[in-house]
């Protein structure tokens, strides 16, 4: 009581002063605490309504419009549109308004539909019934009406309506099983514990009698962290108990194997941990997008300078009043008066006239290309795993093309390169090696009594020191079979596959872990006797300590602490045992690529145990810094250990992992393995996966070396080695670095002025190594490495692959994050940009899909700018012949529809299905990936080439038409054509040229391409015939009436259209052909040899290229 | 969601991941959802532009374009064209005084006469154009200054013309018909052509004014309000364009060529693309198969000089031209065809060399490996 009161005082003081918002108090069942206890400020909590929707019916239009116009491009077009509305501009506001309206509407409909779906889902969730205990009775409520403090009844297989603190369960021991499959994908059953003091209250009447308050931290998104305290009032006394994440049932999780539970709601609605985790990740932008923005800027400059040039020339030209206002063309009075702003409005008018050079539709097309394109990744059968039944998942379609630009691949080892399918291989007790199969035959015997005891103790230790659960098999009709029916009906579940492997290995060695019941762990020993141990404490595993312990009490009353963990974390704490023999064995196993664990124990006297209990409960009760204090407590407890032995577990390489790594290497990517595993194991995996070859010279940058020499010397040594051979023979280097050394390299060191150089030298070494292995890495260090490479001076594109929660930070940090659907839950998948079932799928993802999307989108971007230069440049030239009066060359309909219908579909289709090379060749020959590395298709020279091509085409088109029209007639009846025929002629040539240019670039003509390309040209012709064929009653001008048909009735018009198209396309064809003949890229060579349809040639060429690439 | 919905389908169909063509067929039969399209394996034609494939195309283009070009060039050269500037800038020119003394207020027309000689006879039909230079019919303010509804005979637009016509919309409180700058500046010089026979008598050459405008313009786009009869009554509540001498219903005696459907008017209303332009004025039809339409010899052009162009440094011309199937005299198209054709042919030769030197070498290098 005293202690509880003291905490209260502390808490209230804290609360009263600065950070009272950091904790909240909940009255269970809304019962006020007994008078006399300190008054709490009643806080207001949100209701349990989940709102994942962004809009309501009322605010949809304004909010959505606001969101959309926040994008720079949309805002730019809005401004253009408004300018057109306000001032007198050459083109009607429809020309920019209609496309903008179209784009905005399509986006709004898409977002509205998505939001409607969210509303529907929200409603379903918010309306689902919940059982609440009120006045000793069960009441059904809608989920959204649940309030914080309500006591809720949840039955088996129901999911929790909000975050709850478990009060009592149908089980006597106050535990319940929960699966968090929908939260993090882990389907294993996790055990949660009821509060000790309330676990007995398991009917609604009794629960209603609970009088208690809960103090806990304010909601935070970490799913695995919870700190709180419950105060239970019994009469005048109150008891305080710590609450941790083992007491907290999260919304979205499902109750399993427990018939019902009572729990109290503490976080509701949008404050639940699940809702807090919904927050979207930061947006990643691809390199292509960056180039696109750079190009846009260039075009904006071109646009502005064009407008300025024309405005200036206009005023020079107008200096003569007879030109400015000849007798036939007077201004209106209002136009005459606006002297001051006239220059500015002229400038704006030119801007409007030329604004099509930055096309609205490009953004829509790019977005549609990315969105639709990502379906090809999801549909791909080759990236489907039949075992898991999973396909590739695309979480962000924004990065499709970035997959074709990867330069560095950072991969996790366990579960990514390897199967994460652990198999117990052997154990070693005091230097004696036990292999399960051999043991079963009963061949191994140890004669000495002490040895026998040690062996038994080792096996018991492994049977007890774990957090494995026993899953009871269920029959089809739902009748449960207990564990007692036989070993075969049960299997083990754990979040760590190593533990399962160990417990299963023990089973084969004769010690079977049966179950945990009422705090008693039951083991079936070799003599088929059931041994019971009382489980007193579990010191859970964490990646910093890299070990876990249990404290158990044997039947004999002896207290043991069993500890198992990584060798590096056990050996320093060992005081006796055959350390050297075991260490030798462990190292040998590690070299073979096995995962090793060491096992140790310690006898605890009752006094020591008392002390341990004290330490732990103190730490557990702390509201602040609980983790740190627990770690300190663990540190004090896990000492003076006696080494028992070591285990070895094998984790097999994933299928085709080596092949994939080899392909990535050939594709010019540098592959780094980042693992938490120990160096020897990791290195063995690297050799097996061909990351290191036999010829690879290994450079070590590890603690072992830095102990002998200073870090400084080691670094300089290595860099000298690397640079010496730089120009010479083609030795390739592999670097191994460990976490400790890495942090030393990264640490800013005040003493040493060279410290800044360490990073540089390190990067320099890394750059010259074909493969790097980083072992003993903490999750955050993985992200650090990725960040370091990302920030290095070439700014390479990085990709991170991983399967576990420890890879999330690096997945989020890298340009592209890929999750593997492994066994360590779904966290990596959820946080990734793309997820694939297996590591081997990375090959197709990068070499085929990445390559294709890069080619496609780069053509899309370049082509869009090109076609708009062709479109607008004639208009610019025309200003020189119409007195800089902003007279548009083309009709409004053409201006409007050029980008949204005449030339939009072919390029969209191209950007979806173009395959410049057969995908099998791409897969077979990874070196082709080098052809597109470093954003090679979007470099400035290529961009300038496209722009010049556009300008050339525009000049050909404009002056071709100009000379045709120049002071002559070209009809056979002598009649003359006007300015609209001139524009239509240019426009017709333009549409055909631009479409043919794309047709020439298309290497993959399916029937859809034919349909779309010829279809859009036919559509253009049909539209023009229709547009000019009728007097349109809603138009106030009829300038296009019969213009197109009259033009087509003239022979020279046909001839000049054909001539101008030919002349426009000629240089591009010529350039392509000559470049292909004189300086062919690998891609082009493969294309030609593929064309001859001799697969033998293709492979031969590819092999030759591969060799070149390697040298 | 996506993944799970597909999983169900995956389970029943066991298939190999490496989809050869046979494999794809198996997949297709078991899972109708998995089309070649989704696997990006649609059958496709995969053309590659290499020197070898482009070569023939270049030669073919060259061989087709050069003859076409020669044909066009010859045709263009056979066309007879005669052009005379009658602006009257020069002191010695006949219209100098008319040009000099031009005034908007004068009620009488200034007349001048220009003599010229045709060296060669003009066979077939001859087309008579007037040409203007430095006249910006394509100026934006000018181009839009019209009301197509009014010209189409719309009654409400007749009395209430479009705002685009400003400042040529209303005059003395009445709406202008036809409104706008284009109509207001209608070319109103009258040209008459005489053949001067050896004995000095002037022989007037009949000029046909029918068929100078587009058929669709004359019959559909331009219409008189309330039909072609009673134009005077229809246009009563309107005012004539300020620069016009006569109202629109007095453009011609012929009711089929009066009002908005006057062909001279329609021709003028089709704004030219460039500041130097010509417009069809009259047609001189061939009368007999033996006599040339315009025999060589001396001619007299009588001009009623109404249209001022000197203020903006413009020029006025009269052009006589015969027409072939490809229109008037325009050597550009023929020359362009010959040029592009020759370039193609030349490039074809260059590519042939490149192809022989490089492409065969590179493929040849592969085979011994």
UniProtKB/TrEMBL annotation, chain A:
It is an enzyme of class 7 (translocase). One of its GO terms (molecular function) is magnesium ion binding. InterPro entries: ATPase_P-typ_cyto_dom_N, ATPase_P-typ_P_site, ATPase_P-typ_TM_dom_sf, ATPase_P-typ_transduc_dom_A_sf, ATPase_P-type_domA, HAD-like_sf, HAD_sf, P-type_ATPase_IV. PROSITE patterns: ATPASE_E1_E2. Residues 42-96 form the P-type ATPase N-terminal domain. It is found in: Cell membrane; Early endosome; Endoplasmic reticulum membrane; Membrane. Residues 829-1081 form the P-type ATPase C-terminal domain. It catalyses: a 1,2-diacyl-sn-glycero-3-phospho-L-serine(out) + ATP + H2O = a 1,2-diacyl-sn-glycero-3-phospho-L-serine(in) + ADP + phosphate + H(+); a 1,2-diacyl-sn-glycero-3-phosphoethanolamine(out) + ATP + H2O = a 1,2-diacyl-sn-glycero-3-phosphoethanolamine(in) + ADP + phosphate + H(+); ATP + H2O + phospholipidSide 1 = ADP + phosphate + phospholipidSide 2. GO terms for cellular component: early endosome; endoplasmic reticulum membrane; plasma membrane; recycling endosome. Its main location: membrane. The active site is at 412 (4-aspartylphosphate intermediate). Its cofactor is Mg(2+). It is a multi-pass membrane protein. The chain crosses the membrane at residues 69-87, 294-317, 347-366, 893-913, 943-965, 977-999, 1011-1035, 1041-1066. Keywords: ATP-binding, Cell membrane, Endoplasmic reticulum, Endosome, Lipid transport, Magnesium, Membrane, Metal-binding, Nucleotide-binding, Phosphoprotein, Translocase, Transmembrane, Transmembrane helix, Transport. One of its GO terms (biological process) is phospholipid translocation. Gene3D superfamilies: Calcium-transporting ATPase, cytoplasmic domain N, Calcium-transporting ATPase, cytoplasmic transduction domain A, HAD superfamily/HAD-like. Residues 130-191 form the P-type ATPase A domain. ATP binds at residues 412-414, 499, 541, 564, 595, 675-677, 776, 782, 806-807. Mg(2+) binds at residues 412, 414, 803, 807. Its EC number is 7.6.2.1. Component of a P4-ATPase flippase complex which consists of a catalytic alpha subunit ATP11A and an accessory beta subunit TMEM30A. Belongs to the cation transport ATPase (P-type) (TC 3.A.3) family. Type IV subfamily. This is Phospholipid-transporting ATPase. The gene is atp11a.
Automatic annotation (TrEMBL), chain B:
Its main location: membrane. The chain crosses the membrane at residues 48-74, 332-354. Residues 16-25 have a biased composition (Low complexity). It holds the Pfam family CDC50. It is a multi-pass membrane protein. It is found in: Apical cell membrane; Cytoplasmic vesicle, Secretory vesicle membrane; Golgi apparatus; Membrane. Belongs to the CDC50/LEM3 family. This is Cell cycle control protein. It comes from Gouania willdenowi. The gene is tmem30a.
């Amino acid at each position: 009581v005293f202690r509880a009161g003291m905490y209260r005082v502390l808490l209230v003081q804290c609360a009263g002063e600065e950070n009272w918002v950091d904790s909240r108090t909940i009255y269970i069942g809304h019962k006020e605490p007994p008078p006399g206890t300190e008054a709490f400020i009643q806080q207001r909590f949100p209701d349990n309504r989940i709102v994942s929707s962004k809009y309501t019916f009322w605010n949809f239009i304004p909010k959505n419009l606001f969101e959309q116009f926040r994008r720079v491009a949309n805002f730019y077009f809005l401004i253009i549109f408004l300018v057109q509305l306000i001032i007198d501009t050459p083109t009607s506001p429809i020309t920019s308004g209609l496309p903008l309206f179209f784009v905005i509407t399509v986006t709004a409909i898409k977002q509205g539909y998505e939001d409607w779906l969210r509303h529907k889902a929200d409603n379903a969730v918010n309306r689902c019934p919940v059982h609440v205990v009120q006045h000793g009775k069960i009441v059904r409520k809608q989920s959204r009406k649940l309030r914080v403090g309500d006591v809720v009844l949840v039955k088996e297989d129901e999911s929790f309506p909000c975050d709850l603190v478990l009060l009592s369960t149908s089980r006597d021991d106050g535990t319940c099983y929960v699966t968090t499959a929908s939260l993090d994908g882990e389907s294993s059953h996790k055990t949660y514990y009821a509060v000790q003091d309330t676990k007995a209250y398991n009917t609604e009447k009794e629960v209603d009698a609970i009088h208690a308050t809960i103090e806990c931290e304010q909601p935070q998104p970490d799913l695995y962290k919870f700190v709180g305290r419950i105060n239970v009032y019994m009469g005048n006394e109150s008891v305080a108990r710590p609450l941790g994440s083992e007491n907290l049932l999260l919304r979205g999780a499902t109750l399993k194997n427990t018939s019902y539970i009572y729990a109290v709601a503490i976080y509701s609605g949008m404050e639940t941990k699940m809702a807090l985790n919904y927050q979207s990740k930061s947006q990643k932008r691809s390199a292509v997008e960056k180039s696109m923005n750079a190009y846009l800027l260039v075009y904006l400059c071109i646009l502005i300078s064009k407008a300025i040039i024309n405005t200036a020339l206009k005023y020079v030209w107008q200096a003569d009043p007879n030109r400015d206002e000849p007798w036939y063309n007077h201004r209106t009075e209002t136009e005459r008066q606006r002297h001051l702003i006239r220059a500015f409005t002229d400038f704006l008018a030119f801007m409007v006239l030329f604004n099509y050079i930055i096309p609205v539709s490009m953004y829509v097309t790019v977005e549609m290309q990315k969105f639709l394109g990502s379906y090809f990744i999801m549909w791909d059968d080759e990236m489907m795993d039949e075992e898991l039944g999973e396909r590739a998942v695309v979480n962000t379609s924004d990065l499709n093309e970035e997959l074709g630009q990867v330069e560095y691949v950072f991969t996790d080892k366990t579960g990514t390169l390897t199967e994460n399918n652990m198999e117990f291989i052997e154990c070693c007790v005091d230097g004696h090696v036990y292999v399960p199969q051999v043991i079963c035959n009963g061949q191994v015997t140890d004669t000495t009594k002490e040895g026998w005891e040690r062996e038994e103790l080792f096996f018991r230790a492994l049977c007890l020191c774990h957090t494995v659960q026993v899953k009871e098999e269920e029959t089809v009709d739902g009748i449960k079979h207990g564990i007692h029916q036989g070993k075969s009906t049960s299997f083990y579940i754990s979040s760590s596959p190593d533990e399962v492997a160990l417990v299963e290995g023990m089973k084969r060695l004769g010690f079977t872990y049966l179950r945990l019941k009422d705090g008693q762990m039951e083991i079936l020993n070799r003599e088929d006797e059931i041994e019971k141990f009382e489980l007193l404490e579990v010191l859970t595993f964490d990646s910093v300590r890299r070990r876990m312990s249990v404290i158990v009490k044997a039947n004999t009353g002896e207290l043991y602490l069993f500890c198992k963990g990584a060798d590096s974390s056990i050996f320093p704490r060992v005081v006796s045992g055959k350390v050297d023999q075991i260490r030798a064995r462990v190292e040998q196993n590690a070299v073979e690529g096995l995962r090793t664990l060491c096992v140790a124990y310690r006898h605890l006297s009752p006094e020591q145990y008392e002390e341990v209990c004290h330490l732990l409960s103190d730490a557990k009760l702390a509201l602040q810094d609980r983790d740190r204090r627990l770690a300190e407590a663990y540190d004090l407890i896990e000492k003076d250990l006696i080494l028992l032995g070591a285990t070895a577990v094998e984790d097999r390489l994933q299928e085709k992992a080596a092949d994939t790594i080899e392909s990535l290497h050939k594709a010019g990517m540098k592959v780094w393995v980042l693992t938490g595993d120990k160096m020897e194991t990791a290195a063995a995996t690297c050799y097996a996966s061909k990351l290191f070859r036999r010829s690879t010279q290994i450079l070590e940058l590890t603690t072992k070396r830095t102990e002998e020499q200073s870090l400084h010397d080691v670094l300089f040594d290595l860099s000298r080695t690397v640079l010496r051979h730089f120009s010479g023979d083609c030795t390739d280097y592999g670097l191994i670095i460990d976490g400790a050394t890495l942090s030393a390299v990264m640490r800013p060191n005040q003493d040493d002025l060279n410290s800044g150089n360490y990073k540089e030298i390190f990067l320099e070494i890394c750059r010259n190594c074909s493969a790097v292995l980083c072992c003993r890495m903490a999750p955050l260090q993985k992200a650090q490495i990725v960040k370091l490479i990302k920030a290095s001076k070439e700014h390479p594109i990085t990709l991170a692959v991983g399967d576990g929660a420890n890879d999330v930070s690096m997945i989020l940090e890298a340009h592209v994050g890929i999750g593997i659907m492994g066994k360590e839950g779904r966290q990596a998948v959820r946080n990734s940009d793309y997820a694939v079932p297996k590591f081997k799928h990375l090959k197709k993802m990068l070499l085929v899909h990445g390559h294709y999307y890069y080619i496609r989108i780069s053509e899309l971007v370049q082509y869009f700018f090109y076609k708009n230069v062709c479109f607008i440049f004639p208009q610019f030239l025309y200003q020189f012949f119409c007195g800089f009066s902003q007279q548009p060359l083309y009709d409004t309909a053409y201006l409007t529809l050029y980008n949204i219908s005449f030339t939009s579909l072919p390029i969209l289709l191209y950007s979806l299905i173009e395959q410049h090379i057969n995908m099998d060749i791409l897969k077979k020959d990874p070196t082709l990936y080098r052809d597109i590395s470093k954003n090679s298709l979007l470099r400035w020279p290529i961009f300038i080439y496209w722009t010049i091509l556009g300008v050339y085409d525009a000049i050909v088109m404009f002056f071709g038409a100009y000379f045709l029209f120049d002071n002559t007639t070209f009809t056979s009846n002598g009649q003359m054509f006007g300015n609209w025929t001139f524009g239509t002629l240019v426009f017709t040539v333009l549409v055909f040229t631009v479409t043919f240019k794309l047709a020439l670039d298309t290497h993959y003509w399916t029937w859809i391409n034919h349909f779309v390309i010829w279809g859009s040209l036919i559509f253009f012709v049909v539209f023009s015939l229709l547009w000019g064929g009728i007097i349109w009653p809603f138009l106030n001008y009829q300038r296009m009436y019969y213009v197109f048909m009259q033009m087509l009735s003239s022979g020279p018009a046909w001839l000049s259209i054909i001539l101008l198209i030919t002349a426009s396309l000629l240089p591009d064809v010529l350039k392509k052909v000559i470049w292909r003949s004189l300086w062919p890229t690998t891609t082009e060579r493969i294309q030609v040899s593929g064309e001859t349809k001799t697969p033998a040639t293709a492979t031969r060429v590819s092999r030759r290229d591969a060799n070149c690439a390697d040298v | 969601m996506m993944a799970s919905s597909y999983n169900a389908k995956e389970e029943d169909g066991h298939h190999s991941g490496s989809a050869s063509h046979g494999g794809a067929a198996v997949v297709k039969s078991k899972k109708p959802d998995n089309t070649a399209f989704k696997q990006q394996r649609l059958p496709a034609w995969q053309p590659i532009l290499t020197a070898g494939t482009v070569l023939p195309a270049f030669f073919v283009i060259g061989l087709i374009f050069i003859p076409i070009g020669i044909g066009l060039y010859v045709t263009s050269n056979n066309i007879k064209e005669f052009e005379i500037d009658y602006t009257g800038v020069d002191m010695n020119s006949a219209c100098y005084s008319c040009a000099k003394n031009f005034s908007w207020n004068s009620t009488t027309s200034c007349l001048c006469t220009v003599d010229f000689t045709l060296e060669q006879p003009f066979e077939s039909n001859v087309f008579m154009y007037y040409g203007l230079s430095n006249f910006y019919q394509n100026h934006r303010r000018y181009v839009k200054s019209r009301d197509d509804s009014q010209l189409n005979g719309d009654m409400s637009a007749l009395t209430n013309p479009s705002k685009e016509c400003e400042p040529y919309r209303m005059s003395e409180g009445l709406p202008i018909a036809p409104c706008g700058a284009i109509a207001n500046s209608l070319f109103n010089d009258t040209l008459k052509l005489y053949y001067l026979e050896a004995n000095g008598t002037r022989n007037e050459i009949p000029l046909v004014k029918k068929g100078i405008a587009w058929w669709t313009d004359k019959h559909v786009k331009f219409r008189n309000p309330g039909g072609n009869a009673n134009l005077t009554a229809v246009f009563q509540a309107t005012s004539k364009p300020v620069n016009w001498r006569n109202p629109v219903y007095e453009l011609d005696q012929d009711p089929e060529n009066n009002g908005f459907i006057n062909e001279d008017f329609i021709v003028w209303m089709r704004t030219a693309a460039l500041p130097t332009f010509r417009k069809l004025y009259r047609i001189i039809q061939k009368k007999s198969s033996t006599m040339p339409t315009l025999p060589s010899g001396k001619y007299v052009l009588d001009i009623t000089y109404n249209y001022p162009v000197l203020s903006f440094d413009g020029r006025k011309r009269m052009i006589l031209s015969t027409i072939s199937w490809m229109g008037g005299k325009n050597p550009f198209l023929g020359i362009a065809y010959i040029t592009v054709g020759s370039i193609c042919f030349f490039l074809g030769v260059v590519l042939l060399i490149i192809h022989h030197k490089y492409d065969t070498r590179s493929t040849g290098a592969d085979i011994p490996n």
